[in-house]
Amino acid sequence: MLSYVGLSLLVLLSAMEAATVERVEYDYYKYHTMPEITKWMAQVEKDNPGVVTIVEYGQTYEKRVIRLLKIGLNTGEKKKAIWMDCGIHAREWIAPAFCQYFVRQILQAHKTDPKMQEMIRNMDFYVTPVLNMDGYIYSWKDNTTRLWRKNRSPGPPDCDSYGTDLNRNFDANWGTLGVSFNCSSETYCGSQAVSEPEAQAVTYFVGSRKDDFLCFLTIHSYGQLLLVPYGHPNFTAPNYKELMEVGLGAADAIRSVHGKNYTVGTSPDVLYANSGSSRDWARFQGIPYSYTFELRDKGTFGFQLPQDQIQPTCEEAYSGALHIITYAHDKTFNGAVATAAATLWTMLLTVGVTSTTLM
Ligand SMILES: *[C@@H]1O[C@H](CO)[C@@H](O)[C@H](O)[C@H]1NC(C)=O
Ligand SMILES: *[C@@H]1O[C@H](CO)[C@@H](O)[C@H](O)[C@H]1NC(C)=O
Ligand SMILES: *[C@@H]1O[C@H](CO)[C@@H](O)[C@H](O)[C@H]1NC(C)=O
Ligand SMILES: *[C@@H]1O[C@H](CO)[C@@H](O)[C@H](O)[C@H]1NC(C)=O
Ligand SMILES: [Zn+2]
């Protein structure tokens, strides 16, 4: 028979256990389901009052609410902004993992690092951990759907397949290069520019504040590339040289973390020509520093990057993203000019990806 003391001890122990469970750290180094990520977003907002706000800015085809985390201090001043989205392609699971890591890192740095404190005073960070939520959930369904890329809208009435490639659906030379009008294709660009609700959400949200945004960073895998505008070879960004220099600086920062080589260039120069990407759309809107990150690896595991590579991949990519963001910030707020031995790096450019796998 349990004594009163014994019983109290049991109650106390189970209370302690419950409290411990409550305090279990979120594991940033495993892949998370959509419900887990949504719960994590709510927790991050709750844990960082006055700094983090959830913003709902659209709906997916299957009527899920698209949310981002807005990170910044309300200074009462008009601020500049940084955009980051992950998971526009469903199967690229390392991308949402990176967005979550990125949020944690800037929130930690904001507590200790004067530079991050300065940047969070001057700029708001808008981070969408999973843009293509329907596709992401579908890619978690079973091992036959793991490599799903597109969203989940049905095609035209005579089509027996689902999905539009959201990164071909933006209003940037839409439907001209590197796309398919076959609705069963992985690169089906949709019935018209911005036909898809997920592309509409980004277009309206970013488009309505386009003068605020300094950076537009859209995160994909795989290939270890930093892609600059434009995907169409007949168009050149007005600041192409600067985009390359800053991109090469970011690649340098990435290399210094775990020795991984990232190749920098336009899509036609280092991957394949394409049209309708969000990166190109953002640059056409006048957002100066628009980049696509293609994270690890170079094809060994491809979209199915093992979980033990999440940490190093995120660490190096954070360093690269921070290089671009810091450059954009300092140029805008300090007039500082970040020059580098960038021309040297240009000479070292190598094309690392020869496969035609879509990323
Ligand atoms: C999917 O999983 C089943 C059961 O675990 C396995 O038998 C099958 O080979 C897997 N298929 C693929 C395409 O990986
Ligand atoms: C459309 O694409 C699918 C998948 O790639 C392919 O099987 C089919 O033959 C294509 N249809 C036409 C008309 O090209
Ligand atoms: C690029 O411009 C050239 C010259 O005007 C033209 O011949 C070519 O078709 C264009 N390329 C594309 C992909 O539109
Ligand atoms: C990265 O590139 C440099 C220069 O091209 C080369 O020396 C080095 O071996 C590469 N590192 C890896 C890990 O491939
Ligand atoms: Zn992709």
TrEMBL record:
Active site: 294 (proton donor/acceptor)
Gene3D superfamilies in alphabetical order: Zn peptidases
This protein's record includes keyword ATP-binding: no
Domain of life, source organism: Eukaryota
Keywords carried by this UniProt record: Carboxypeptidase, Hydrolase, Metal-binding, Metalloprotease, Protease, Signal, Zinc
N-terminal signal peptide: 1-18
Cofactor: Zn(2+)
Protein name in the entry: Peptidase M14 domain-containing protein
Organism (species): Perca fluviatilis
